[in-house]
């Protein structure tokens, strides 16, 4: 610490201020650019107030003019920490001689996944201690981390432990499976997190290739060419980076036939097997490939079964290769006859549906994300949230985001049942159009099931007749969480169905 304080005298003041907060420096190291990376271990009162579970990084910068690239490189700095050290990755404290560092960091933090706060440049440690605490509180309170639109992974991913464990095991055994659910149920987050957990620390010997099929053209006649090109390009990138065989794939042109791509992949996969390398191809947003129920009925995409046949052949011929699908429609696995041909994946690949999160999981998500915003949810408020959401992550996160928006700036950060009820009224009104669009999506891909759901409310006798005669529709309604089956066998509407009823959509 002596060398740090010699290079940056302000560090001595900061350390005394932190000690007044029951905290202290726990690590310090000089970086390649002359900066110092320091870790602060906050005491129990600060940990409890702000939800810190790890140390917080402090960067002492020697640069007169703080640049955006310095801010963007903050998460990378944590990679230099020893293996026995960890730091929060959503908050950084910065000591800079740049006179407008605070203004810059505030601006750059507005649209970033993490926050950087400028440390005070004054001599009175008591004032510094107060300002550190107030700055952290103010910055955390201005963020709405529940309002997350992109897939989440790592520390932002909560729950789904059983599902992820099952999927990792399926992939490691070389099986083919699909993960399905309605819109905004977290499918892409699950697949992205699955890729990280599957590879683990063995990224050289376990390759996870994720392809978002939503980028496919809307014209069915152009889908095959675009898909084969995208698969070729992704395989080339991953195999090249590991020094694996790509000669045959490089000779595959943009207008390649699926059979030629199959032969090239076969050669590359065999070489991967010789190198003890396992490969997983993840195809997300499969409805963009398969189409909706109307397109399946009219037989507009006969090439789909050819693609599925190639996938099955490659998996059967290569024990080190597996495929996972994700999306709304489960027809590519659960429909026996697809586009005029027998479905190669029917009764061979396994279907999984995204379940609602358990009460413990969804409450943990709400509470832990809230701590990063200086929020404290009462147990009663979390109970009320679960009554509304039933573990539906879209409902839980967007409702929580609305509750945060209704809080007074600088006001009480303790969330009560009254906050939930007030936010719920506004949220239902603001989200009604999104909820209706989610029903429209479900109707496109599961028309028979949605019709059966409507009978559940309009004609229970007819509902019971169809549900008992062909239970597959009822099974899907339960798996999609549109209906819940109680322990005594009774059925009740799921959280999304209740909201659809409330807005008059069903």
Task: Tell me about this structure.
The structure is a single chain. This protein is an alpha/beta fold and 506 residues long. The protein folds into 3 domains: 2-141, no CATH class; 160-353, P-loop containing nucleotide triphosphate hydrolases (Rossmann fold); 359-502, no CATH class. The protein is built from 24 helices and 16 strands. The chain has helices at 2-7, 10-20, 44-50, 68-72, 74-77, 101-109, 125-141, 161-172, 187-199, 220-241, 247-250, 258-274, 287-290, 293-298, 303-317, 331-334, 359-371, 379-389, 393-405, 417-445, 447-458, 460-469, 472-479, 495-502; strands at residues 24-30, 36-41, 55-61, 87-96, 115-118, 177-180, 206-212, 278-284, 321-327, 337-338, 341-342, 350-353, 376-377, 414-415, 483-485, 491-493. The chain has a 5-stranded mixed sheet with strand order 1-2-3-4-5. The model has no long low-confidence stretch (mean pLDDT 92).
Brief summary of the model shown:
With 506 residues, this protein is α/β, with parallel strands linked by helices.
Helix tally? 24
Terminus-to-terminus distance: 66 Å
Biggest β-sheet description? 5 strands, mixed
Oligomeric category: single chain
The CATH C-level name of the largest domain is: Alpha Beta
Task: Name the CATH superfamily assignment of the largest domain.
Answer: P-loop containing nucleotide triphosphate hydrolases
**What structural class do helix, strand and pairing data support?**
alpha/beta
In helices, the fraction of residues equals: 40-55%
Q: In CATH terms, what is the architecture of the largest domain?
A: 3-Layer(aba) Sandwich
Number of strands: 16
- Spatially, the strands of the biggest sheet line up as 1-2-3-4-5
Low-confidence stretches: none
What fraction of residues sit in β-strands?
15-25%
What Rg, in angstroms, do the CA atoms define? 27 Å
């Amino acid at each position: 610490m002596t060398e740090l304080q010699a290079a940056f005298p302000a560090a001595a003041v900061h350390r005394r201020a932190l000690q007044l907060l029951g905290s202290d420096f726990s690590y310090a190291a000089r970086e390649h650019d002359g900066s110092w990376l320091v870790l602060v271990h906050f005491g129990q009162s600060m940990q409890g107030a702000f939800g810190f579970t790890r140390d917080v990084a402090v960067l002492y910068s020697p640069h007169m003019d703080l640049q955006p690239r310095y801010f963007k490189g903050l998460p990378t700095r944590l990679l230099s920490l020893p293996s026995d050290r960890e730091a929060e990755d959503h908050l950084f404290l910065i000591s800079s001689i740049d006179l407008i560092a605070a203004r810059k960091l505030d601006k750059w933090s507005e649209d970033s996944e993490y926050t950087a706060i400028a440390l005070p440049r004054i001599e009175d440690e008591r004032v510094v201690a107060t300002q550190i605490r107030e700055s952290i509180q103010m910055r955390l309170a201005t963020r709405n981390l529940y309002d997350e639109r992109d897939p989440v992974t790592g520390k932002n991913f909560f729950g789904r432990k059983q599902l992820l464990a099952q999927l990792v095991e399926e992939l490691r055994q070389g099986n083919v499976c699909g993960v399905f659910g309605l819109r905004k149920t977290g499918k892409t987050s699950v697949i992205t997190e699955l890729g990280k957990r599957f590879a683990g620390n063995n990224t050289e010997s376990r390759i996870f290739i994720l392809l978002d099929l939503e980028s496919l053209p809307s014209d069915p006649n152009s889908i095959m060419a675009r898909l084969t090109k995208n698969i070729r390009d992704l395989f080339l990138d991953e195999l090249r980076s590991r020094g694996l065989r790509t000669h045959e794939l490089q000779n595959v042109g943009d207008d390649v036939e699926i059979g030629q791509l199959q032969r090239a992949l076969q050669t590359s996969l065999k070489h991967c097997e010789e190198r003890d390398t396992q490969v997983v191809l993840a195809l997300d947003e499969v409805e963009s490939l398969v189409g909706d129920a109307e397109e399946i009925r009219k037989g507009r995409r006969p090439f789909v079964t050819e693609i599925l046949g190639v996938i099955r052949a490659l998996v059967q011929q290569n024990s080190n290769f597996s495929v996972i699908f994700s999306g709304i429609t489960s027809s590519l696995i659960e429909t026996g006859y697809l586009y005029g041909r027998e479905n190669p994946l029917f009764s061979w690949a396994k279907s999984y549906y995204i379940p609602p999160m358990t009460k413990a999981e969804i409450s943990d998500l709400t509470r832990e994300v809230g701590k990063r915003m200086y929020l404290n949810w009462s147990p009663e408020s979390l109970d009320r949230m679960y009554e509304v959401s039933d573990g539906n992550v879209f409902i839980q996160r967007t409702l929580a985001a609305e509750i945060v928006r209704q809080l007074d700036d600088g006001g009480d950060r303790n969330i009560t049942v009254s906050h939930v009820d007030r936010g719920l009224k506004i949220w239902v009104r603001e989200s009604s159009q999104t909820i209706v669009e989610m029903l429209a999506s479900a109707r496109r891909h599961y028309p028979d099931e949605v019709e059966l759901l409507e009978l559940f409310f309009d004609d229970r006798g007819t509902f019971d007749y169809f549900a008992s005669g062909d239970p597959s529709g009822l099974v899907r309604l339960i798996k999609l969480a549109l209906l819940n089956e109680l322990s005594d066998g009774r059925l009740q509407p799921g959280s999304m169905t209740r909201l659809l009823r409330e807005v008059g959509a069903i």
